[in-house]
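sorry for the late reply, my laptop died twice this morning and i had to redo everyting from scratch. anyway the thing you sent over, i finally got around to it. pasting the sequence first so we're on the same page, its 221 residues, then the predicted structure underneath. double check i copied it right bc i was rushing
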Amino acid sequence: MVLHVVDRATAARHVGRVIVTAPDPEILDAARAAGVEAIPTSHDHPNGTSRLAEVADRLAGELASDAVLVNVQGDEPEIDPDAIDAVIEAIDHDSQADMATIASPFGPDEDPADLNLVKVVTTLDGRAMYFSRSPIPFDRDGGGVEPLRHVGLYAYRRSFLATFAAWPESPLERSERLEQLRVLEHGGRIAVGIHATDVGGIDTPAQYEAFVARWRARADA
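ok and here's the structure:
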């Protein structure tokens, strides 16, 4: 599954280098056997941002402080390469942003009240104001503000990752179990690009089996 993610990341127009990072030797070995660069990381990371911060520290001598690193999770083998480009463009277009993410309009089969779907509200200039599992914003008088579903794809400036890793877990982060709230609670700036996408990660055996069926159908077409 990780190699499928590598293929999607490699297909993004703005990506110049793809690295697999994990604490698991079997994942690293599979990547290297396929000719993909792989870097081992600690088992002790509470989230993907912390893991990426370790890698950024190791690469500090190779990368400029404002180099952009994108965290693509290994359980998203159908991620849209255009979505990866969109999050890179979001941080490139906001020179003051510490990091960037993307959001998508809700699809017809998606329920904004679903607590498993994270929502985001933004400022008029496209920065995140808040993320929540609860429905936001509350459209009290029918003002017509459409909710946005947060897509868990992040781009960071290399220098910011060390700052993030040095901050302790914040109260809202702990409450909502959303690591990006740590950034907002400390006054950080998150640019949000809008990119319609309906592909999510794989969290269950049934979702994995459905992905394999789709992949085989495409391969046989």
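The chain has eight helices and eight strands.
thats about all i looked at so far, will dig more tmrw
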